[in-house]
Design goal:
Elements: E1 4-9, H1 13-22, E2 28-34, H2 38-48, E3 52-54, H3 57-63, E4 68-71, H4 78-87, E5 91-95, H5 102-115, E6 119-122, H6 129-139, E7 146-155, H7 169-172, H8 176-192, E8 197-205, E9 233-240, E10 245-251, E11 260-268, E12 272-274, E13 280-284, E14 291-294, H9 307-315, H10 325-344, E15 348-349
Parallel strand pairs: 1-2, 1-4, 2-3, 4-5, 5-6, 7-10
Antiparallel strand pairs: 7-11, 8-9, 8-15, 9-10, 11-12, 12-13, 13-14
């Protein structure tokens, strides 16, 4: 039985999820971890019984026979490390977001195509049991034609530490929209199964972060020696080619009642739906306005698809990717357009030639 040898690039908090998920697959074995921090890489190697550690990811690629790498590093490193891994002949799982911007994402995709390697961006919300329950209802036609959707992830105090790469545009590419808004945008388009976007209008704000307000629970912040120059709240309105629309909101820091709330809500001619906290289908029963609310059966969490085992199955040729690169490129293009719209105060058309066949 073929074993897929995997190398892990990055040893932060998200890497723990990658390691645990990959090791769930009976035909996958993590054999190396690369991270500049000796403490982090050795701790994870001990916890997950990984035999080899490296301070340098390029050295790991040179000195091991891994078949694939999972990359969970700061956004600015996605491009150089993904390109290096692909050019060395390895398949790649890339933690979201795809990259800091569409140009970098296209460079990564072009490398994957040129090298003939499998590339997947790990958009985890697609794999949730709640998502799969609503997706099944949509595929059964229970919502009719969906003409509007609301997607949001709103945190009251969720800035992931001041003074780090997260809060600097040069190293992150963006703030709340690129960090958590990308999840809900991707989830929404996946449920709609519609990536034909016409235009984006957005407003983007950095109001609380620059004042030192809204820190999350990721631990104590570093001394603030760099300015907070990313968005702590962005709101976007997305118009699709079939005239359906999406309202998207993402915040790291916002004066709201709830500490943290997220959802995708869908509105169709035959019914409506929401994904979180419990998936529900809403439908009108008669002309007097009587409604029925149904909670669709969820897949057992132990049987729900996992993005890490799904990636291994795709490498083995047993599965078609749920998260495709063309879809990930379109999500990145929308985020780029939202930031551009917010900066110019104008509606931005999605006209990138790289996306004309998506």
């Amino acid at each position: 039985m073929k074993q897929i040898k995997v190398g892990m690039i990055g040893a932060g908090a998200i890497a723990e999820l990658h390691l645990a998920g990959i090791q769930r697959h009976p035909q996958a074995q993590v054999v190396a971890i690369a991270d500049p921090s000796q403490t982090r890489r050795e701790r994870l190697a001990h916890c997950f019984h990984v035999p080899n550690t490296f301070a340098n990811a390029l050295k790991m690629l040179e000195e091991t026979d891994v078949d694939a790498v999972s990359i969970a590093v700061p956004n600015a490193l996605h491009l150089p490390l993904a390109v290096a891994a692909l050019e060395s002949g390895r398949h790649v799982l890339l933690e979201k977001p795809f990259a800091r911007n569409l140009e970098e994402a296209c460079q990564i995709n072009n490398t994957a195509q040129r090298c003939g390697r499998l590339l997947m961006v790990g958009m985890n919300q697609r794999f949730a049991p709640e998502t799969q329950a609503v997706k099944r209802a949509i595929d059964e036609g229970r919502l009719g034609r969906i003409y509007h959707a609301k997607a949001y992830w709103m945190r009251r105090s969720g800035i992931p530490r001041f003074g780090t790469w997260f809060s600097q545009r040069e190293t992150s590419g963006g703030g709340a929209l690129l960090d958590i808004g990308v999840h809900m945008l991707d989830l929404c388009l996946y449920l709609l199964d519609n990536y034909q976007v016409r235009s984006v209008t957005a407003g983007s704000y950095s109001e609380l972060g620059p004042r030192g307000l809204g820190e999350g629970d990721w631990g104590l912040s570093d001394p603030i020696v760099h300015p907070f120059d990313v968005d702590d709240f962005t709101s976007a309105f997305i118009r699709l080619e079939d005239d359906s629309t999406v309202a998207l909101d993402a915040s790291w820091a916002l004066n709201q009642q709830d500490p943290d709330r997220r959802d995708v809500q869908l509105f169709g001619t035959g019914g409506g739906a929401r994904v979180y906290p419990v998936p529900c289908i809403f439908s009108r029963m008669d002309s007097r306005g009587t409604y029925q609310t149904v909670e669709p059966a969820m897949v057992d969490v132990r049987q729900a698809p996992c993005r890490f085992t799904h990636w291994i199955d795709a490498i083995l040729g047993r599965a078609e990717l749920i998260c495709t690169v063309p879809q990930a490129l379109k999500v990145q293009a929308i985020i780029d357009a939202a930031y551009r719209s917010a900066k110019t105060g104008r509606e931005v058309l999605i006209t990138s030639p790289e996306l004309e066949h998506v």
